[in-house]
Every structure is written in C-alpha cells, then in structure tokens.
Write a structure and sequence with these properties.
hydrolase; ATP-binding; alpha/beta; two-stranded parallel ribbon; globular; 7 helices; UvrD-like_helicase_C; about 25% strand; Rossmann fold; P-loop_NTPase; five-stranded parallel beta sheet; nucleotide-binding; about 160 residues
Amino acid sequence: WQEVLVPLVGARWGVAELTGNSRTPGEIRAVRAEGLRKVAPALTPPGSVRETGVPPWEETIAGDRLVGRLSELVDRELAAADGGTVAVLGPPRLVSSLRPKLHRERVSVLTVQRAKGLEFDAVIVLEPEEIAAASPRGYSDLYVALTRATQRLGVIRTE
C-alpha cells in the first residue's frame, strides 16, 4: 500500500483492520472465520454487528436425490426470506445443469465467480470442497461464497 499511496497522498494514509461486519450475521461468523483462516491466517475475522437467531445448516444428500431435495430447500429458503433473494452457489459443473431446474423468481444459481460483490438474503453453498479445489484461489472463492448471505446460510454436500 505504501508504494501506491505515498506518491499520491504522502504520509497522510494509514491502514486500519476491519473489526465489524454488518453484512454477515453473527450466526454465520464461525463458518466465515473458518474460511478466512484458510485464506489469510494472519487476519482476525471481523465480528458481526447483528444476529438473526438462525444458525447455518448443513446437509448431505445422495447424488441421485440432489435436484429434488435442493428444490425443496430452495423453496424453504424462499419462504423464510419473505420476499427476499436466494442464491445457490456451486462449482460450474453443477451450476449449468441446476440453473434451469431451480428456475424461480428471486432465485439465482451462480458460480462463485459470478456472485462476487453480490448479496443475497439466503445462500446455499453446494460442494464446498469442490469449490475450494477448483482453482489456485479456491479457498478465497469458498470464502466469497460463505460471505454472500445477509440472513441465512446452508451448505450441501453430496455422497
């Protein structure tokens, strides 16, 4: 930062560590913190400034039941979001085949790369280990996926 900023602003700059997070509720903090440790172990995860009362959930689904069960879970999250948005974030091999099967108003089925910078009321992350293994920045991508939710977070693995 010094190399970039000193020529522009001289000594009038500083570094401050983010200590509070208003996007992600406290219930998701532990999941988010675990992801951050894999990306940047020296950083302290920021605390959350709010709670929702809804803990993150995880489910393992048989591969041949994925579409049906995921459809049920998306409907459940839509109802809980009460007019809000739901995202299903996963590896490219799943996203392209699931998108037409999960087509609903207020639902986005995206790769993590497409979700960067976006927020959703509820997020379902598919196959987190596959997301992490998919690229040299895999754990960073997984961290992005785990931090898109503003209210509710679910994680699905297949067996």
